[in-house]
């Protein structure tokens, strides 16, 4: 059953109203019961019984403080004006002393002090004076309770206020939890879309307005899913077509390469003239280049078709393997590898192993991606060194694998489009031997994105802005497996 949000809110307003009535009614009822039972004296008790109490005190042969009701406080003075006994606080004693001796022998009188207390003095049989003090407020009938607690009126007011605050707090807490629970499907749906989970249906809600939003999100999810599936199907067909075309090219390329090899052997034996030998070499080099190009296309298509196989990976072990593989590749080019790991990276590796929570990666795919970056760096390095570095960003919880060279760097076009397939618009980084097909960076970017990361291309520069070389960095978020 769908309920309007206004009704949900109104229900909690009703809870507050009922709670407020109870918070006021229960203390008021308890107060009335105590007055009816005699546990609390009415507010006018001191004023109404004053004459009776004074008459009783004046007729006592010896002073008895227990005969004074709890509505009064007393101070007994001797004939010489000395204080003999009292249950008044210090502030009231000063006023009582002024009332104890009547001016010019006048009869006892009632005096109202600035503190809203009333004072009256009565003469005792021993020649002393007793000053009674009272207030027009309800009071406890028991003197022990009177001395231990505030007067019933103040206690009633503070009790009502505390109960009201408690009612509002409890209703607000309950309302917050209920509304949060009712908004839960909306939060879950938004989180699912955020992590690109389009297979989980969006739940419903019994709150009409929230349910309307959820229905719209469900329609959006289905639309996005259909669009994504259509795009994936188109990409899959495109990859299959490219892979099939590349496979079909393998046969004529093999024939052309075989014949070029035979011609090269004839040229080596001197059976061909100089011009013919040059043509044979050109044909062989072109066939080798085309064969390498077709191989890279097949590799890229196969990599996308197979996807990634995620498993817990020790980042330190991955770094060890990459350093070995990249080192061998760079050595084959006659270069030297400079490898480094930041302390934050090593700490993150140690923590992951200690906690048993390793990131979910495809180590083989990452190895291919980094080797592509390293091969690209080898082809464009001007000096004799290529750098491989590992770092960790604790704030982003991401690991970075960077490959740097000291070549001409990326052009603005390459920085913007270098990860696109078959992009070859960077003349500065296109080598003359025809091995640059625009696939290496695209393959690395695909692998990074399959891990929820990205490939970042940039140029290293000095303080004056001069380009010192290119930098390609794979950034991988630490999607962690459950602790083992």
Q: What proportion of the residues form beta strands (DSSP E)?
A: 15-25%
Kindly report the average pLDDT value. Answer: 83
| CATH classification, class level of the largest domain | Alpha Beta
Query: Helix- and strand-based class?
Result: alpha+beta
User: What's the arrangement of strands in the largest beta sheet?
Assistant: 3-2-6-5-4
What does this structure look like?
The chain is of the alpha+beta class and 484 residues long. The chain has 3 domains: 44-136, Beta-Lactamase (2-Layer Sandwich), CATH 3.30.450; 208-299; 309-477, Histidine kinase-like ATPase, C-terminal domain (Heat Shock Protein 90, 2-Layer Sandwich). The chain has helices spanning 5-37, 45-48, 50-58, 90-100, 143-148, 152-182, 184-194, 208-269, 274-306, 315-332, 343-355, 363-380, 412-417, 440-450, and strands at residues 40-41, 73-77, 83-86, 110-112, 117-123, 129-135, 139-140, 311-312, 336-341, 360-361, 385-393, 398-404, 454-461, 467-477. A hairpin with a 4-residue loop joins strand 4 (110-112) and strand 5. The radius of gyration is 47 Å and the shape is elongated. Mean pLDDT is 83; it is low at 427-435.
């Amino acid at each position: 059953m769908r309920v309007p949000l206004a009704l949900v809110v109104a229900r909690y307003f009703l809870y507050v109203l009922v709670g407020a009535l109870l918070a006021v009614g229960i203390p008021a009822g308890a107060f009335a019961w105590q007055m009816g039972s005699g546990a609390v004296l009415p507010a006018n008790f001191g004023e109404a019984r004053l004459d009776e109490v004074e008459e009783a005190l004046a007729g006592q042969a010896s002073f008895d403080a227990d005969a004074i009701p709890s509505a009064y406080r007393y101070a007994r003075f001797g004939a010489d004006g000395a204080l003999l006994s009292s249950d008044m606080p210090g502030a009231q004693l000063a006023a009582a002393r002024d009332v104890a001796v009547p001016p010019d022998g006048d009869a006892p009188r009632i005096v109202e002090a600035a503190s809203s207390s009333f004072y009256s003095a009565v003469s005792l049989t021993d020649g002393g004076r007793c000053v009674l003090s009272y207030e027009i407020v309800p009071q406890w009938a028991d003197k022990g309770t009177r001395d231990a607690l505030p007067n019933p009126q103040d206690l009633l007011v503070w009790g009502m206020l505390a109960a009201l605050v408690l009612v509002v707090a409890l209703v607000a807490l309950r309302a917050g939890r209920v509304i949060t629970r009712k908004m839960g499907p909306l939060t879950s749906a938004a989180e699912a879309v955020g992590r690109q989970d389009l297979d989980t249906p969006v739940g419903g809600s019994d709150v009409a307005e929230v349910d309307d939003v959820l229905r719209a999100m469900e329609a959006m999810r289905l639309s996005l899913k259909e669009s994504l599936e259509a795009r994936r199907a188109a990409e899959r067909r495109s990859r299959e077509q490219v892979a099939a075309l590349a496979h079909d090219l393998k046969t004529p390329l093999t024939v052309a390469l075989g014949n070029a090899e035979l011609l090269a052997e004839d040229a080596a034996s001197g059976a061909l003239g100089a011009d013919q030998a040059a043509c044979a070499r050109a044909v062989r080099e072109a066939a080798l280049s085309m064969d390498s190009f077709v191989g890279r296309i097949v590799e890229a298509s196969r990599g996308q078709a197979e996807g990634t196989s995620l498993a817990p990976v020790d980042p330190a072990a991955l770094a060890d393997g990459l350093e070995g593989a990249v080192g061998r590749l760079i050595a084959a080019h006659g270069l030297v590898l400079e490898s480094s790991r930041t302390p934050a990276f090593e700490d993150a590796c140690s923590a992951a192993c200690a906690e048993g929570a390793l990131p979910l990666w495809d180590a083989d795919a990452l190895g291919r991606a980094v080797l592509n970056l390293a091969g690209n760096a080898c082809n464009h390095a001007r000096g004799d060194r290529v750098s491989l570095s590992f770092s960790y960003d604790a704030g982003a919880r991401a690991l970075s694998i960077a490959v740097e060279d000291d070549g001409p760097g990326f052009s603005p076009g390459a920085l913007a489009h270098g990860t696109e397939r078959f992009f070859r618009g960077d003349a500065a980084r296109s080598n003359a031997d025809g091995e640059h097909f625009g696939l290496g960076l695209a393959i690395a970017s695909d692998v990074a994105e399959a891990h929820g990361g990205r490939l970042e291309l940039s140029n290293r520069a000095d303080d004056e802005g001069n380009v010192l070389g290119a930098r390609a960095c794979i950034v991988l978020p630490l999607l962690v497996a459950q602790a083992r």
